[in-house]
Amino acid sequence: MKAPSNRGAAKLNEDQRVLHVLNRLGFGARPGDVERVKAIGVDKYIEQQLSPEKIDDSATEARLQNLETLRMTTAELYGKYPEPGQLLRQLQQRGALPADLAAARDNRVKGGANAAPNPNQPKTEGVSGEMQGPDAAKGNQAAKNPAANDANPMNNAEYRKAMMEYFKENNLRPPQFLTGELQMSRILRAVYSERQLQEVMVDFWTNHFNVFAGKGADRWLLISYDRDTIRPNTLGKFYNLLLADAKSPAMLFYLDNFQSVSPNAQLPPLLPNAAQNPLRALRMSNNPQQQKQQQQRRGINENYARELMELHTLGVDGGYTQKDVQEVARCFT
What we know:
Mean pLDDT: 82
Structural class: mainly alpha
Strand content: under 5%
Shape: flat
Low-confidence stretches: 113-118, 121-144, 146-151
Largest sheet: none
Number of strands: 0
Number of helices: 19
Helix content: 40-55%
């Protein structure tokens, strides 16, 4: 049997070979990259990229200093970037809800979805994320219909203004800033980092072990997921990355494995005050009846086990059975 032909690679001149490596191991050549790689040699450059911890990337880290969320714990993130509705409930439980904010909230609730449109109400454009309510997550369709936008209590201008003022006075920021800063850090690293192969692999593994930022608590968990789960394992053994991912709070929440429990297990009582466990409230519905149903539903959740085999490891045609899914789910419960 003949060995694979290497004639295609032999036709590349030195500049083309360097560009090929820069494009495959990174996000493309920047000014000066071709000359730098030519100076040390392609093989040496590849060797360096395979050991990112030995590459000085302090200049890139300096560019990230203003992105404070990258260095914060999940608890710190939830404290400074709270979900507005949950923040109101916590303030009310502590007896610390300001009168003007309470009045704005009550007025919003009384307005209801059937409130008559107010032609004198100021436009609400330019306010995004949680400050707009559920329509923001649906492409802000209400903004295309001013009457519907004014009638929606979640888009009440008085409530939104009072909430934003409270955030400003207490040095708080809307939670949509979390995903924004994470995205900014990824772009900055892709452009400026000397550890190009690591950034390519971070992008690859983040897509492979996908977690949706729009699902409940995951917005607050993704910073740690990127920093503590994906990045330390990008160029290591797949086994270690898979294990770290299985243990990560972001994946446990996203694929519902945090809900998996033996039907015979004796569960501890739920804490009466969500402030003692702030992320717990994001796992529960705001509807009391649905909360009761969620607490009553107990059993092994197969979602993570199925995705583990179908997406993370074996593939959709990997030969596993429903029995395999059930047994893997039992192992992770």
